[in-house]
Design a protein that fits this description.
The chain has helices at 111-114, 302-334, and strands at 6-8, 18-20, 23-25, 40-44, 57-61, 66-75, 81-92, 99-101, 115-116, 123-126, 130-139, 147-157, 176-185, 193-203, 213-222, 228-237, 243-246, 250-255, 260-264, 268-269, 275-284, 291-299. It is mostly beta strands and 364 residues long. The chain has two domains: 6-162 and 171-185, Sandwich (Immunoglobulin-like); 193-300, Immunoglobulins (Immunoglobulin-like, Sandwich), CATH 2.60.40. The strands form five sheets. Strands 1, 5, 7, 8, 10, 12 and 13 form a seven-stranded mixed sheet that branches. A hairpin with a 2-residue loop joins strand 2 and strand 3. The radius of gyration is 42 Å and the shape is elongated.
Length: 364
């Protein structure tokens, strides 16, 4: 059953949005327990002649072109529900890179400014067990850059919730859903990516023995103008080029042009005892050169290294002392008189032997 949206002037309560690849999910848990699934939906209207329903919007557009389309908002409860609906930009989350949509209140610079839902920023009521078709238009700016652009339409349930008086503090939950929108503007496209800021934070015992672990991080950036999907793989090699660690591949989907995000690998346990290790990262995606990066770090159990240096220093000192004692002993042996049959004959000043002069008689 289809109904209509009723405009309402209602205060919008505090909202924290948790974004996911399919849209927007909620935020503020009031108490312990599982968060219920949203009891409403926002889905693209079925395209004429389509065999399967659309899960998102995909358009090929020229700069300046306008496309009209529709989305269906359904209230699956039996009570009146209040909604706020807006167009938004797409992005990748700073850690992990999941595709997401900006919540209301952020400045929109891309697709969020291209879409006109004709609803403004008000709050609208929808009766229970009814659906409404929301028509919208998409206009690519005349100066839109070639390539892929991402955004979507979001709906947030802002139905007021009665607050209990007294007792512990309670938080209000506002749940939201969204439909993603991907637009390719005609023109030259190129797929490219970069790997950067590879870092390793390690924990190594002073003596090197015991629990040794590290966390590897790196950043991926979409430097082209097309959406990327692919896989990033990180490996670690030692000084001899042997692979000492291979992390599981990280899948990347709907990587928005210009976006950058950080990948945090699972904790690496049982590190090598000591030495330089090199982290290698490769990101592969169809129709683009493989993006690579590497960084070297040291595993350095400082106390063990200090003890080894002390032992080596003592060994070198003992060797020096031993060689000096041998040299002194050899010099003392060279200064002693050589053995012979008798005392050596005295020699003259010129080195020749002198014979005694004969005695001359004094009288005849």
């Amino acid at each position: 059953m289809f109904g209509s949206l009723t405009w309402k002037r209602l205060p919008v309560l505090a909202v924290t949005a948790v974004l996911s690849a399919t849209g927007l999910t909620v935020a503020m848990a009031p108490q312990a327990g599982a968060i219920a699934v949203p009891t409403f939906s926002l889905t693209p209207i079925s395209a004429p002649g389509a065999i399967a329903p659309r899960g998102s919007f995909h358009y090929d557009m020229l700069p300046g072109q306008t496309i009209n389309d529709s989305v269906v908002l359904s209230n699956e409860t039996n009570q009146l529900q209040d909604f706020q609906i807006w167009a938004t930009d797409g992005l990748n989350t700073p850690v992990g890179g999941a595709f997401a949509l900006r919540p209301l209140g952020y400045p929109m610079t891309g697709v969020g400014t291209w879409v006109n839902t004709h609803l403004g920023s008000g709050v609208y009521g929808l009766n229970g067990n009814t659906s409404v078709t929301i028509n919208f238009s998409v206009t690519a700016p005349a100066n839109a850059t070639p390539g892929d652009h991402a955004g979507g339409i979001e709906a947030l349930n802002v139905t007021p919730v009665p607050q209990p008086s007294g007792g512990p503090a309670h938080f209000i939950i506002h749940r939201g859903v969204a439909t993603a929108m991907f637009i390719r503007v005609a023109g030259l496209t190129h797929a490219a990516a970069a790997v950067s800021n590879i870092s390793v934070k390690s924990s190594v015992p002073a003596l090197g023995f015991g629990s040794r672990h590290a966390v590897v991080r790196y950043q991926l950036e979409n430097t082209g103008n097309t959406l990327l999907s692919g896989s990033a793989v990180a490996t670690v090699t030692d000084v001899f080029g042997r692979t000492v660690k291979a992390f599981p591949p990280v899948g990347v989907q709907d990587f928005v042009p210009g976006a950058r995000f950080t990948v945090v690998e699972p904790q690496w346990n049982n590190l090598p005892l000591i030495g330089p290790e090199t982290v290698h990262v490769k990101f592969t995606s169809p129709k683009m050169p493989t993006a690579t990066g590497q960084s070297t770090f040291w595993i350095f159990p400082w106390l063990l290294v200090l003890l080894v240096l002390v032992v080596l220093g003592l060994l070198i000192w003992r060797l020096v002392v031993w060689r000096r004692s041998r040299a002194v002993a050899g010099q003392a042996g060279g200064d002693a008189a050589p053995d012979g049959d008798g005392p050596a004959a005295p020699s003259g000043t010129d080195g020749a032997a002198t014979a005694p002069e004969p005695s001359v008689p004094t009288g005849a």
